[in-house]
Write a structure and sequence with these properties.
alpha/beta, Rossmann fold, 2 domains, six-stranded parallel β-sheet, 10 helices, globular
Length: about 210
């Protein structure tokens, strides 16, 4: 049995424009004089809304409010983000033979809205969002224990677009797959020494199969 864990933002959901817009709106609302750019996301050691706020020069005392504003903006969208081309078919195909879960720093509510919009909710076995306690590595371990009948003999992959996804996979002892269509550059991803780098959803299918 194989367990495939997907990050959400930048792997399944094309949320870059939303992240930049909502980050700027949060800064404006909090009175932070900062122009948000992709660079604020591209070099983060840990990809989360908290570290995103820090990169946007939000004072520590306002970080939680920055996170709340960004998550609420996603929840308030009339339509969830677009899915990267080809990833819907990847999820559907892999789910016929493997267990699939999402581990993300976004909220489970936002992810579930996205899955329903793109008719993928029936193909995902679990979502571990920011509302699930623990680090990303701990959530990976949680998914392993809950979804694999015999965790000691299963194979696990973590598919992510950030340095922290790769490092979390290594901490949890699962195979790390870095995708290059997400929010961080290839140079940043390579700093984590991922087990595999893929450049398209088709490449991802070949690696896992």
């Amino acid at each position: 049995m194989t367990l495939i864990l997907f990050d959400y933002d930048g792997v399944l959901a094309d949320t870059l424009d939303d992240l930049l817009q909502f980050g700027q709106e949060a800064c404006n609302q909090l009175g932070v004089q900062h122009t948000v750019t992709k660079h604020d996301l591209s070099n983060l050691e840990v990809m989360s809304f908290s570290t995103y706020g820090q990169a946007c020069q939000v004072p520590e005392r306002l970080i939680n409010e920055f996170v709340r504003i960004c998550l609420n903006r996603f929840a308030e969208k009339t339509t969830p983000p677009a899915i990267f081309q080809g990833m819907g078919n990847v999820v559907r195909n892999l789910s016929t033979r493997h267990k699939i879960a999402i581990v993300t720093t976004n909220s489970s509510q936002n992810v579930n809205m996205f899955l329903q919009e793109h008719r993928l909710d029936g193909f995902i076995h679990a979502v571990y969002g920011v509302d699930t306690p623990g680090s990303k590595a701990q959530k990976i371990a949680m998914a392993r224990e809950r979804l694999l009948e015999n965790p000691a003999h299963g194979s696990e992959f973590m598919v992510g677009d950030s340095l922290s996804d790769i490092l979390s996979a290594k901490e949890a002892g699962v195979t790390s797959i870095a995708v290059t269509w997400g929010h961080q550059s290839l140079d940043t991803l390579l700093r984590g020494n991922p087990d595999v780098v893929v450049h398209s959803p088709n490449d991802l299918m070949k690696v896992i199969q």
